[in-house]
Amino acid sequence: MSWLPGSRGVVLTAYHPSGGGGAPGGRRSGQYTMNHDNSKKTPDGASFDRSGSQDSLDELSLDDYFKEIENIHETRRNNHEEREALVVKEPDEGELEEEWLKEAGLSNLFAESTGDSQESMVFLSTLTRTQKAAVEKRVETVTQTLRKKNKHHQIPDVRDIFRLQSDPKEKVCDENEPSAVRTTENRSGTQDETKGSKFSVGTNEQKTPPQDMQFSETDLNLEIPFAEQAANTKDSSVGKMCKSGGGDTLPLNFRLPKDKTGTTKIGDLAPQDMKKVCSLALIELTALYDVLGTEFKQQKAAKIKTKDSGLFGVPLSVLLEQDQKKVPGTKIPLIFQKLISQIEEATLETEGLLRIPGVATRVKTLCQELEAKFYEGTFNWENVKQHDAASLLKFFIRELPQPLLTVEYLKAFQDVQNLPTKKQQLQALNLLVILLPEANRDTLKVLLEFLQRVIDHRDKNKMTLNNVAMVMAPNLFTFHGFGSKTIEQSEFVMAAGTANVMRFMIQHQKLLWTIPKFLVNQVRKQNAESQKKEKKDKAMKKLLKKMAYDREKHEKQDKVPNDADVPQGVIRVQAPHLSKVSMAIQLTEELKASDIVARFLSQKSGNVQTLKKEEVFLYEIGGNIGERCLDDDTYMKDLYQLNPNAEWVIKPKQS
C-alpha cells in the first residue's frame, strides 16, 4: 500500500537510516530527487537562506515537503516492525447520510425509536435556509435508500420536516427572543431592523450586518452563517475574487471585529451547549460545502487492533487516561508536552529546527527507552538532543492509530484547499476545528502554538511560515488507508494543497478557536424554546400535584423581596471564591466584564483564598445559555439585553 503515487512506502513506525540525519548541518548520503516533472536535486539545507517574506508556496519551497516525505520513507525502510494499516471503508449507499444525521443529532428522523420528536422540532426550528437544505438533502437520500432496501421505518417527508417554519405565524418574530437567527422566507426586510444583535437569514437578498458594524474584505463576519454569506455572494464578482490559485500570492491578515456581547472561545461553554454547537457546526459546514459545490464526505475507518499502553502508536484517549492517573485533569498527553518543552529548553533559534532529522540509531534507542522509563520517571532527558526531540515529536503525531485530524474529517481538511476564496477556507477550518474531539482539538492547539513560536524565531532558525508548513504537512496529512493511485501530477498538487492548509492553520490559529456568534445564538434559541416547553410541562404537573404547586408558589413568594432589591438596570454578581461574595452592579454603556472582576478583586479581607485577575472570570449562567465564560471586553449592558434572565458569577475557569 502506498501513500502517494511515486512514493516508496507508507508512513510507518521507523527512523532515518544510521548516519543519515546526523548533527545539525549534516547531509544525508546521496541526494533526493523529487518525483514530479520539475524535479531537481537539492542538498540538505539548501533552502535555509530562503527569504522570510515569501508567502506563496512556489515550486522551490516545496523542496522541504518532499524532503520530509523522503525522511519518513527512509525511516520506514529502516524499521522491520510494521503495524497494521488503517483501512478506510467505502460506505454503502445511504450509510454516509445516516451517519451524518446521527452526528448532527437528527437520528430520530429515520430511526425506529423516534425519541423526543419535540426536541428535534426545537432544533430544526433554529436552522437557517442553507442549513435546512443540507438536512433535507441527507434525509431524502436516506429515505430513498431505505425504500430500495424495503425498510419500513417511518421517515417524515422532507417537505414536512420544516412545516412549522412555513406556518404564517412563524413569520412574525418575537422581539423578546434572544436568538440572532431568523429562518423565515419573509422578504419584507423589516426584521433586519430588530434590536440587539438580531438579523434575518433565509432569503436570497444580500444581508446587511448589524447597525454600526462595517465588515471589510479581511473581516470575518461571525454574525451571519457562513453558508448564507456564500449563497448571497456566490454569483457576484466579489465571490469570484481571490481564487485559491492566484489569491495565495496576496496574503490576507483576517481579523475578528469586536463583538459587544463578547467573543466565545472553544472551552468557554458548558458541555451541554458545546454538544449543540458541534451538531450545528456539522450542519453548517455541510451547507457551506453544498453551496460552494464541493463534495463533503466523512470517512469511516475499519476497526484495528491498537496498543492499550505505552507512548507511541497509542490512541489519544488511552494516553490521556494513563496521564490523568499521574496528573489529574491533564488534557494534553504528557509525552507530547515534554517533547515540546525539551525542544524549547535548548533554543528555538537553532537553524533548521524541525527540518533536520535526528540521528536514526539514537532516536530509535530513545524511543525504546521512553517506552520503558517515561512513566517511571527514570528516563534521562539529558541524552535527548534538540533534533532528536523534534523527530520524536513528529513521530508521535504520525504514529497515532488514527490521524490527529481524525479519519472522519481528514479528507474534509484536505479539501479546504478546493474552496473558492481564502475567507471561505478559513470559515471551513473554523468549523472543522470545532468538530474535532476534545483531545484531538486540545493537542492540535498546543502543536500550532508551538509551531508559531518556532516561526517567531525565523530570523535565526531560518524556519519561515512556509518552511514549517511544508515540514509539518506530511506528518499531519499523510496516513495509512488514504493512499492515492492517480497520476503523479497529483502528488505535486497534494503537496501544495496540504501545505497551504497547514500554513493557514498556523497563521490564523487564534481565529480557529472562536465559536461563531451565529452558532451561539442558535444554541440560545434552542435553550429558550426548550425552556418554554419545560414551563408548559411544569404547569401541567402543578395542576396534577397540588402540594408541589404550593411549595413552588411559596418559594416564588420568598424570592420576590430579593428580586425587588435589585433596581432596573442593576445586576447582582456573585463571587463565592472571593472575600466580597456579592455585589450589586449598575449597568452602564461602557461597563465591561473586566471592570466587574476588577471591582471584586479590589475588595480584600478575611482569610478567603487570594486569586489573581488572570485566574478568575465572569460567567453568564442560565437564562438562554447553560454557562458561558465571558471575555474581558464583553459589554455587560449589551449582553444583559440579550440574556436578561442570566445569573452572573465570578469564579476560576475550569482547566
From TrEMBL:
<dbReference type="InterPro" id="IPR000198">
    <property type="entry name" value="RhoGAP_dom"/>
</dbReference>
<dbReference type="GO" id="GO:0005096">
    <property type="term" value="F:GTPase activator activity"/>
</dbReference>
<dbReference type="Pfam" id="PF25442">
    <property type="entry name" value="Ubiquitin_RHG40_C"/>
</dbReference>
<comment type="function">
    <text>Rho GTPase activating protein that suppresses F-actin polymerization by inhibiting Rho. Rho GTPase activating proteins act by converting Rho-type GTPases to an inactive GDP-bound state. Plays a key role in tissue tension and 3D tissue shape by regulating cortical actomyosin network formation. Acts downstream of YAP1 and inhibits actin polymerization, which in turn reduces nuclear localization of YAP1. Regulates cell shape, spreading, and migration.</text>
</comment>
<protein>
    <recommendedName>
        <fullName>Rho GTPase-activating protein 18</fullName>
    </recommendedName>
</protein>
<dbReference type="Pfam" id="PF00620">
    <property type="entry name" value="RhoGAP"/>
</dbReference>
<dbReference type="GO" id="GO:0051056">
    <property type="term" value="P:regulation of small GTPase mediated signal transduction"/>
</dbReference>
<dbReference type="GO" id="GO:0030833">
    <property type="term" value="P:regulation of actin filament polymerization"/>
</dbReference>
<keyword id="KW-0963">Cytoplasm</keyword>
<dbReference type="GO" id="GO:0005737">
    <property type="term" value="C:cytoplasm"/>
</dbReference>
<keyword id="KW-0343">GTPase activation</keyword>
<feature type="compositionally biased region" description="Gly residues">
    <location>
        <begin position="18"/>
        <end position="28"/>
    </location>
</feature>
<keyword id="KW-0597">Phosphoprotein</keyword>
<feature type="domain" description="Rho-GAP">
    <location>
        <begin position="314"/>
        <end position="513"/>
    </location>
</feature>
<feature type="compositionally biased region" description="Polar residues">
    <location>
        <begin position="200"/>
        <end position="213"/>
    </location>
</feature>
<dbReference type="GO" id="GO:0007165">
    <property type="term" value="P:signal transduction"/>
</dbReference>
<feature type="region of interest" description="Disordered">
    <location>
        <begin position="169"/>
        <end position="213"/>
    </location>
</feature>
<feature type="region of interest" description="Disordered">
    <location>
        <begin position="14"/>
        <end position="56"/>
    </location>
</feature>
<comment type="subunit">
    <text>Interacts with MPHOSPH6.</text>
</comment>
<dbReference type="InterPro" id="IPR008936">
    <property type="entry name" value="Rho_GTPase_activation_prot"/>
</dbReference>
<dbReference type="InterPro" id="IPR057323">
    <property type="entry name" value="RHG40/28/18_ubiquitin"/>
</dbReference>
